[in-house]
Amino acid sequence: MKTNNLDDLFKKKKTSNTSFYLKITIIVFAMLVLFFIPFFISNWINADNNTYEIKTNGEQYEKGNFFKYQGKIYVFTLNDGMQELKNVDIATFKPFEPEDYFTQNIALDKNSVYFGNVIIPDLNPNKLKVIGNGYYTDGTNTYFYSPFSELDKNSSKYIFPYKKIENIKNLKALKDFELFAVDGENVYYKGEILKNADLNTLEIIDRNNEYFADKENVYYKSKLLPIKNSGKLKIVSSEQGDTFLYDEVNGYVFIGDYSFDKEKAPYKVIGNNGNTLYNLIFVAKDGIYYYDSEKKKQLKAGDNIFIGNIEEINPNIFTDDENIYYFSAYSVRSGSRKNHGELISRNTDIYYLDKKDGWEKIKDIREGSIGSIWKKENKYYYFNNLGIFHFTDNAIYEISDKETLNYLLTKADDETDDIRSEGLTAINTDYIEELIKNKKLIAVSGEKKTTITIEYETDVVDKIFKYSIRIFLVVYLIFIIFKKFRESRRLSDENKWFWWRVKI
Fold first, then answer.
1. 322 and 432 housed in the same domain
2. Domain limits at 157?
3. Predicted local confidence at residue 151, as pLDDT
4. End-to-end alpha-carbon separation of the chain, Å?
5. Per the structure, how many domains does the chain have?
6. pLDDT-derived band of residue 500, with 50, 70 and 90 as boundaries?
C-alpha cells in the first residue's frame, strides 16, 4: 500500500511541470488584464471630479462662477471643473462685480483677492477697482487678469493667466481693443508692453485678438514680429487646422511668433478655408511646405510639382497653368480610421484630377455654401464644400443621372425653408449625404501626388512601455516565488522518501 502511494507521488511530480507552467500562463494573462485597469480607473476619476455634484447641490454666488458646497468654496473652470479655494473666510466671501464676464472668476473676502483659486497677496480687497479690459488696481498695485483660459506649458493644464504691472501711472482701458490698456507712454496687451506701438494706427488683424499691426510694426500678442506692415496681412487657416498670419505682398508666413524660412519666400498659400484638408500647404519655388503642429516647425512635403501660377477655384480644389488638383484628408486612430480610438495621425493628400482645359463652372449651390456644379464635355460634377466634418469625405463627385442634376440646378438658389414649404427635399447636408449613399453622386478618384502627415504622440505607447516593465517585474517575482515553492516541495518529498526507506 505504501508502495502504491509512493508511485502516485512520483506520477504527480512528473506532471508538476505542466501544472506549473499552466499556472504561470494564467498569471500572465491576469496581469495583462490588470494592465488595462489603470486606464479605466483614470478615466473614471477624471470624469467624477464632483463638478456635477457641486453644480447641482451647491449654492452659486450670484452670477459668478463661485459655489459654496459642504462648507467649502469652489470656482468652476471650463477645463478643470471645480477648483477649491483655500483659506477662505466664508462669512465675508463674495464675487467681485459678477455681472462683468471679465470678473466672473474674481472674488474677495476680508483678507484676500482671489483670481480663480489663486490668492493675490498684495492686492487690498477693500480698495480693489476695475480699470477695464481685465486690468485691476487697489491704488498701489496693478494687475492684469485674463478671463480666457490658456494652456500652461509647465503644468500642461489650462489656467487663467495674470500678471503684475510695475510702475504704472494713470492706466486706462483702451476702448474697442479688448485686453489692451494705455498709460500715456506705453500700450499694454495682457499686461505686456507692445514695443514701439503707434496707438493712432494700431489695428487688430484677427478675431482672436492675437495679431496686431500699426503703420509700421506687426505683433503677435505682445511680441514684435521681424517684418514690416505691408498693408495686406490676413489670417489663413483650414476649417480645423492651425491659424497663420500671411503677408500677401511678400509671401511671408507666421504661426504665432514662429516664422517660416524667409529665404524661401514668397510662399503661395493653398487651402484657406478648406474643409477636406487638415493642413494648409505653402508652395515655394523649391517645394511644398507645411507646419507640423506636433514638431512645432516648418517641414517640406516634397518638390514643387505645380506648373506656373496656382489659383484656387474653391477652397478644396485648385489649378496650375495646366492641371486641376484637389485635397483629401483622413485621420488614423487606434484600430481603424473610423472608430473613436486614440488619434495616431492626421493626413492631407494632394490629388491630380485632370487637365485644366475643358472644365466649366455651371452653378453654385446655395451661394457656394453647399458646393457647385461643374461640367467637362458631356459629364457633370459636384464640387463639395461641406467637407470631411460632415462625413462627405471626397472633394469631387460625378453626378450620375439627369434627374439629380436637374434638381440640383433648379433648386440651387432656393433657401431651405422655401423648399420645405413647397413639400420638396431641402438641399442641405443630409440631402447630399443621401445622394452619396444612393450612388447618385459617385466619388471621383484621382492620382495621389503628395501626402502630408502629422503624427501624434499617444498615451497608449507610453503606458504600454511603463506597464509592460511593471508586469514583467511582477511576473518574474511570481516565477521566483513559485520556483522556490517547488524546490521546497521537492526537498520535502525527497525527505519523505528517505524516511520511508529508512523505516523499511
1. yes
2. 57-166
3. 74
4. 13
5. 3
6. low
Q: Which amino acid type is present at position 76?
A: F
Buried b (16+ CB within 10 A) or exposed e, 146-175: bbbbeeeeeeeeebbebeebeebeebebbe
The dihedral region occupied by 418, where left means phi > 0, alpha psi between -120 and 50, and beta the remainder, is alpha
Residue 203 has pLDDT above 90, yes or no: yes
pLDDT in tens, 344-366: 999 999 999 999 999 999 999 99
CA dist., res. 198 & res. 214, Å (int):
6
CA-to-CA dists, residue 362 to 121, 273, 356, 365, 424, angstroms: 67, 22, 15, 10, 23
Query: Inter-axis angle of helices 2-14 and 16-35, to 10 degrees?
Result: 40
Q: How far apart are CA 354 and CA 436, in angstroms?
A: 22
Neighbour tally for 222: CB within 10 Å: 17
User: Which of these three, 135, 166, 197, is where a domain ends?
Assistant: 166
* pLDDT > 60? residue 499: no
Task: Report the largest interatomic distance among the alpha carbons of the chain, rounded to a whole angstrom.
Answer: 114
Within this chain, do residues 390 and 490 fall inside the same structural domain, yes or no? no
Residues 411, 349, single domain; the answer is: yes
Indicate if the pLDDT at residue 432 is higher than 50.
yes
> Which range, of 233-242, 255-264, 282-291, averages the lowest pLDDT?
233-242
Report which of 391, 189, 105 is spatially closest to residue 276, judged by C-alpha positions. Answer: 391
